[in-house]
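Reopening: structure tokens for the iron/sulfur cluster complex, inputs below.
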Amino acid sequence: MQAIEKYTYTTPTLSPKAQQMRDLMTNYITIVSRRLPDDVTKKLKDLAQIEVDPLQQLVYDTMRENQLLAETLKRPSCQDTGALQFFIKCGAQFPLLSELNAILKDAVYQATQKAPLRHNAVQTFDEYNTGLNIGNGIPSVFLEIGDNSTDIEIYVYMAGGGCTLPGAAKVLMPGEGYEGVVRFVMDQMTSYGINACPPLLVGVGVATSVETAAFNSKLALMRTVDSVSPNANAAKMEQLLETGINNIGLGPQGFGGKKSVMGVNVVNTARHPSTIGVGISTGCWSHRRGKITFDAALNYTLPMNKGVQL
Amino acid sequence: MRTFHLTTPISDADLEEIRIGDIIYLNGTMVTCRDVAHRRLVEEKMPLPVDVRNKAILHAGPIVKDLGNDHYEMVSVGPTTSMRMEKFEEEFVKQTGVKLIIGKGGMGPGTQRACEKYKALQLVYPAGNAVYAATKVQKIVDAQWRDLGMPETLWVCKIADFGPLVVAIDTTGANLFEQNKIEFNRRKEAEIQKINAQVRFIK
Ligand code: SF4
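Re-run output (same inputs, fresh job):
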């Protein structure tokens, strides 16, 4: 039997500017691991006021208390800190574009020790945990060259196993229509949704094939919980699904209650005339998604975390 | 919803009145115990190196800090999906005499039978609240099967007011999540009907 070649990692040599960006990203990842974005915090507060039963209130109280403790004790708020993902829109003239992959991987590596994050990278087929929280393809970096600017916009996302599990995509025949999309999403809610730590943020992607639909559904989770699709029909579907899933009444942790979701976001792109691709991704109540923007001089903004400084 | 405060060792009588949907706060001894530990006991016939009779187990893989000299600190602990242990739990309860099975989400008919027959409860800690839970662990008093690595080690914890723990299966065999599931599926069908009347975008 051939010996398994173990995954190794050595910190790359980065330019001084890239080191600066790496350090800022390390700090931001650490913050994302313990502090929920403003839209999620607000939504949980609103939902806590709607759930009047003592059992549901107790769950929401525990969540609030846990987030306070995480902030004070500076620890990750949930033990499952996910496998890091970055969704990026980068201007073609952003000066650190060539070092971007190395910066992000090293930031995850550093944040793993700093936060500390759980070691969540298992090399497939060889089936061992790298013990570093990075591996082949982890973190995953999805890059889109937006325009010719010198700015970059990065979404940071940590999803645990529980809320990754409901993810699915399928290609429907046009005859199944948007009714088929609805059935696909709703079925996933009652089978896997319960164990994904509701109230959920549900991302729905509509496109041509499995990967485009699935990718759209993940992008949908990057939008804030109360955001509305710019397409009128997609916005209508968001509203209908949100009401419908809420009426199933999963409640926090699936204990039952008035609400099931923090929101439903639909992201759609054009489709081939013969197919409708549908994808679903779910975010748990502990939706650790952040957004950071940099300009060429590495001045940053944190639009989802008011008052936070790195 | 009624609230109970229990302390290990737990007797059959302590659990008699408790029903699904009730809340428990636990004091005493709780041992983390998940996939491989269940497999070792049930399939490999290896005796559990920790006595959990009349005590509690938690389906969890915690983050533990090694302070040296066999001292440990619980940094973060939250439950993992209990359904993965369903296959083993009936036999596990029978052999060990454990009284409280704590985890995330529902469990199935094997655990229901075990809870009824051996007078035990399945409980759910609201997942995602790992820092809160860790602060309820006063001390890690023992660690067994260290060879399994940090997540799978049997961490013997002294706990105070550990909870809230929601009763998901009681000693009559009633199952909160199974009951909910039937209701959720019924409502879902009605909602799909309503929505589908309004999404005929392809004309
Ligand atoms: S689903 Fe989310 S909150 Fe629940 S255990 Fe996983 S990461 Fe934590």
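The CA atoms of residues 88 and 154 of chain A lie 5 Å apart. Chain A touches chain B through 55 residues (CB under 8 Å). Marking as resolved unless the reporter disagrees.
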